[in-house]
Amino acid sequence: xxxxxxxxxKIESRLDKGVNKEVVIEILNFIKCPFPxxxxxxxxxxGDYLPKNRELGFSDEKRYVHFLWDVLDKSPMCLxxxxxIYYRQILAKRLFKSCGKNFVAEENVRFNVPDNIEIGDxxxxxxxxxxxxxxxxVIGNSVGIGxxxxxxxxxxxxxxxxxxxxxxxxxxxxxKIYSSVTILGGVTIEKQGIVGACSLVNRDVRRNTVVxxxxxxxxxxxxxxxxxxxxxxxxxx
Length: 237
Known about the structure:
Family: Belongs to the transferase hexapeptide repeat family.
GO molecular function, one term: acyltransferase activity
Largest sheet: 7 strands, mixed
Keywords: Acyltransferase, Transferase
Helix content: 10-25%
Protein name: Acyltransferase
InterPro entries: Hexapeptide_acetyltransf, Trimer_LpxA-like_sf
Order of helices and strands: HHHHHEEEEEEEEEEEEEEEEEEE
């Protein structure tokens, strides 16, 4: 076992025993991330102030795991892909409502309500993506999401900001979301749908179609060359 694998095994072993201040300090030391450890038991994250997290219950353990996710991007270790990818996989199993195998998240992937995120197998999320999961986000199997995508699942009344509306976003199997796409609440991207770069999606995307534009409109059917599902041989990288 090489040193990186040993480090990942140590981190996973510590987390398996429960997450508290002492475990967080150990992991921060492992990844060489300086921090004033004496304030760890006082920290609050942005998620602590969200009504949806308070409703679901934002535990100390969940706060610490979310902190460990975000803090990696403040450390040079975020540049070490064969560490960072697997580190995030370890945390994702403890953060999200569910997370399948072979999950890959690049740098600076952010979210606000981890308990409302469900992720299937073989999902790739590229750097800079933001997931507002207050209303719930379900990502199916073999989905690819490009750089700087934004997913929103809630909005505020114009006459009273405290009045909120929550609507889930569902991205079905084998869908592809290209870079700088914005998806609004209540949208379903059906199986094998594709959203072109820089599009704003405010309505459902039909199965096996390509949409583009602001707002997005259907352009054509996906060019699958008679392949479907696993035959599409999606490989992320």
